[in-house]
From TrEMBL, chain B:
It comes from Hymenobacter setariae. It comes from the Bacteria. Keywords: Oxidoreductase. The keyword Ribonucleoprotein does not apply. GO terms for molecular function: phenylacetyl-CoA 1,2-epoxidase activity. This is 1,2-phenylacetyl-CoA epoxidase subunit B. InterPro entries: PaaB, PaaB_sf. Its EC number is 1.14.13.149.
Amino acid sequence: MLLLMQAAPSESATLASYPAEVRQLLFHYVLQLADTSLILGHRLSEWCGHGPILEQDLAMANIALDLLGETRSLYQYAAELEGKGRTEDDLAYLRAAVEYRNPLLVEQPNGDFAHTIVRQFLFDNFHYPFLQQLKSSPDERLAGIAEKAVKEAAYHLKWSSEWIIRLGDGTPESRQRVEKAIASLWRYATELTTPTATEKALQEAGIIPDYAALQPAMAAHVAHVLQEATLPTPAASTFALAGGKEGRHSEHLGYILTELQYVQRAYPGLTW
Amino acid sequence: MNQSEWPLWEVFIRSKQGLDHKHVGSLHAADATMAIQNARDVYTRRLEGVSIWVVESTHIHASNPDDAEAFFDPAADKVYRHPTFYDVPDSIKHM
């Protein structure tokens, strides 16, 4: 109780210190981050009970839960930024697909294990360096969320990198599968580091990291992992797919939300 | 890759307060790196530990249960092997 009372003034000061338009931008941006980790976490949770081996089944469920934890903190913050009395659950369960702002990459189906690994690797390779920078955001809440999530993201990146190497430098079958996954998913990576108008405005305001500054480290890690995996570096994608961050999604998101939101839609206000 | 090709590993975890690594179970993994990562995911999810050892199960040689009588029973009546006949000075702590 004492902690809450101490924390309350500084938080509201941060929130109150934003002009209305920055607050609106930040609301949309925090939603984007929350949607991204929710959808990817949900995808990973679909593996639960279907993993190739027990140990990896657990590893994917662990990562899904890490992402869900991050999601909750973000939705809670988004709800406060919006200030219209919506809760984290309202934001997760009662918005339509066009209102979701996750990049297309994270809603792509699991496919085989190699497909899931490549999707995860592309995301982790952005997520980890991004959170490292976000830790020093002047926005206290985002900095705090990043501080906690970055340790988890460091492990996720280690895990997915390790698997890219194993699959690439593994058996002919694992190599063929990971090559196929790279060929189909690489085009979604560009969206992660291409700022939308919202992101540009927040980058200029110094609230979130400049993605261009992340790219050298991201490219270096990809090059290192692919080399270890004896996989060729994919040509820079000329056919990049984007739009998710602005609500233009692939057909897959609708199916995810149908499953994710079913209970709240069928029984509004239901709680455990 | 067939799971049955992956060797079995024994996992030892040292808890925060503990001084020694304790055996906690076993798992399958292709090599030591994967075994440590798997052990992290399977056996340290609830803050169980701060350090992990893994060893391939084939490298553990165990005593034969059939030898138990010959191995262990003779120690049962050798009370003089226990240092219980010494008075420990009061100034010695943590004995």
